[in-house]
Amino acid sequence: MYAARYPDVLPDVTLADRHVDLVEEGYDAGIFVGRHTRSASIVTRRLTTGYMTVCSTPAYLAQHGTPTQPEHLLDHPCLSRPSEQGGEERVFTGPDGDEVRVRPANAIAANNTEMLRQFALLGMGVAILPSYLIGRDLAAGRLVALMENSV
After folding, report:
1. DSSP strand E in 10-140: where?
2. Which helix (H) or strand (E) holds 146?
3. CA–CA separation, 119 and 33 (whole Å)
4. Considering just the CA atoms, what is the radius of gyration of the chain in Å?
5. Which of 51, 89, 86, 83 is nearest to 70 (CA)?
6. How do the pLDDT tens digits run along the chain, 151 residues long?
7. Which residue from 24, 91, 110, 118 has the least number of CB within 10 angstroms?
8. pTM here?
């Protein structure tokens, strides 16, 4: 454990759902979730690779139907980040392996993925969330993965 090994170091942790310039903002290290733009002033290492999952609650799906193709998202309220609010195009892999592009309509935008997870758990629409965030919800049946391996 880090604290036991370095008892004189006091970690100061900052969580931010935005682009952070580590050098400009004076950070010693950072962990980025998502795509990161390369910079000549920092050294990067990939820790893991995740994926995005289209999901919703069983109750929402029972009431509104289950989208099985990317185009079906156009008929459902979507929960997304503000940068996607302007109808950002989403790229999916279709059933034949071809690329499918859609611009889902947003019902709610939030700059925090945990908040979007909570909206999804309340049955407020269909969300596209990181797998690491919703793994327990999927295992417990609180959320259902849709269009697996398509995002």
Report:
1. 52-56, 78-80, 90-93, 99-102, 106-109, 126-130
2. strand 144-146
3. 20
4. 18
5. 89
6. 788 899 998 888 887 777 788 888 888 888 777 665 667 777 778 887 778 899 999 999 999 999 999 999 999 999 987 654 445 678 888 777 888 888 887 788 887 889 999 999 999 999 999 899 999 999 999 999 998 766 6
7. 24
8. 0.75
Q: What angle do CA 65, 67, 69 make, to 5 degrees?
A: 155
Tell me how many degrees the CA angle 33-150-101 measures, rounded to the nearest 5.
95
Residue 20 to residue 74: CA distance in whole angstroms: 32
Q: Which CATH class, in words, describes the domain spanning 52-146?
A: alpha beta
Residue 10 to residue 56: CA distance in whole angstroms? 40
Q: How far is CA 24 from the centre of its chain?
A: 26
- Residue 72 near residue 149 (C-beta atoms within 8 A): no
Evaluate whether 104 touches 90 at the Cβ level (below 8 Å): yes
Which run of H or E residues covers position 62?
Answer: helix 58-64
**Two tokens, residue 14:** 């900052």
